[in-house]
Amino acid sequence: MRTLSNYYLKTDQFSKSIRGEAHLVIGRKGSGKSAIFLQIRDRERSNSKNVVLDLKPDGYKLIKFKELILDFLQEGTFQHTIMAFWEYVLLLEICYKILEKDREKHIRDHVLNEPYRKLSELYHAEGYETEGDFSERMTMLMEKITSEYRAKYGDDQGNRLSSQQLTELLYCHDVKELFQHVKNYMKHKNTLWLLFDNIDKGWPTSGLKHEDLLIIRALIDATRKIERQFHKSDIEVNSIVFLRNDVYELLVSETSDRGKEANVLLDWTDSDLLRELIRLRIVANNLDEDLDFEHVWPKICISHFEGEESSQYLIDRSLMRPRFLLNLINQCKSFAVNLNHPLIQADDIRKGLAAYSTDLLTDIGYELKDVSPEIEDVLYAFIGNKHEATDEQIRSALQAYLGKDELQEVIDLLLWYGFLGVRLSDLDIKYIYNFNYNMQLLKGFVKKMNSKVIYTINPAFWEGLMIEG
User: Fold this and answer.
1) Which of 148, 183, 260, 455 counts the highest number of beta carbons within 10 A?
2) Do residues 314 and 224 both lie within one domain?
3) What is the C-alpha to C-alpha distance for residues 429 and 425, in angstroms, rounded to an integer?
4) pLDDT of residue 205
5) 41 and 82 Cβ atoms separated by less than 8 Å
6) Sheet harboring 454-457: ordered strands across?
7) Distances from the Cα of 204 to the Cαs of 42, 72, 195, 345, 378, in angstroms?
């Protein structure tokens, strides 16, 4: 986090995000969402006139809040309550950030002094607690709402609350007055940034449900509403929510107005772009910044491994995800350092790949669990298998492991995560990233081949599963 700016690869997705053209940044785990989050945060808050909220909600606490609300409210009221909750949380956090940022400055600035004191009085009304980080403040607010509900309505279930009742339940501030003072104060600032990351981290462990998607949808809608309200007063607001691909796909499938939100996809398909990412990290070690990859890569690694160019060999086993590629290279480097090798040698690559492959099985297992908990360990169905198999052989292995007949959805997931690829010819094997992550196109190729389709297991998993290569 501290040194990333020294070698960060500024992609087109980053440029669109920093220009405020994206409201959603979507990518798989390890694709670089948090890197964009950090770069925007650090760059924008270096300007003292900007107000930057870098928010990371606690997914577990959101689940508990959802369960408490869901137990007592009908879905229509649940949806409205979550939306109102996010709007209120965002307003309080904007206020908190302003007061924190100008705590010293307003004393010396006569223009800010009076607006600051008034805003502070409103924010701290009713003894509102501001200790801890964002997650802790949000938790205190959740607990206040649930205790207020039980105090007023007991344990009655299926209630449909009126707008007035919701207002009384949710708010401990005069929201209209607070919002007006925040807007007035922001006229002394430049840009307001609302950055949400990690909202889907480790959430949920039992698979995504309809209500989980409502919470994410409500957050996105709340940020857009805040933007519109501030824009009416000519205050620039940019909001970005960072989401995993699988969560976004489910969100889109349940949303009637698809494509409404401007988004950028962090899907990596170009090997040369990944090489540039590695090159920037190498030259950051006091080397000439203008050196190209062909000159810097031999400084840390042998040029070829098992007849292949070594960097391409490693990239082919990274599932085209920057974090995975960095992990793989670091595993190889660790063995080289421990054995006093001046460069990463062939044995270091073999050992590094074995360690990486085992870790990768766990990582992809967690991703599968988030979407479909019952197939978390499905990759182990292929232990000791050959690296290629017909459709019938794949289904047989899955059926023996899972004990069920409906397997097409499982196969689709294995294709989507890059575990399985498709052999198009003797020398042409394609994975999801070779189809620009277009699942429909990949499934079209599979359907066209019909029963003659040959699946191949990604070589990144061979070592971990003892696959016969």
Assistant:
1) 455
2) no
3) 7
4) 47
5) no
6) 388-390, 454-457, 420-425, 428-430
7) 29, 21, 21, 41, 19
Q: What is the pTM of this model?
A: 0.85
Q: Are residues 361 and 405 in the same domain?
A: no
User: Are residues 156 and 8 located together in one domain of the fold?
Assistant: yes
The pLDDT tens digits for 356-413 are: 999 999 999 988 887 788 888 999 999 999 999 999 999 999 999 988 878 998 999 9
Do 208 and 72 share a structural domain? Answer: yes
Least confident of 77-91, 352-366, 381-395, 424-438: 77-91
Same domain, 232 and 327: no
Mean pLDDT of the chain: 86
| Model confidence pLDDT, tens digit, residues 100-139 | 999 898 888 888 899 999 998 888 876 566 666 777 777 7
Bigger pLDDT: 150 vs 392 = 392
Q: Indicate the residue among 265, 282, 305 that finishes a domain.
A: 265
* Domain that residue 439 falls in: 372-465
Same domain for 205 and 150: yes
Q: What angle do CA 205, 206, 209 make, to 5 degrees?
A: 115
Asked if residues 122 and 99 have their Cβ atoms less than 8 Å apart, the reply is no
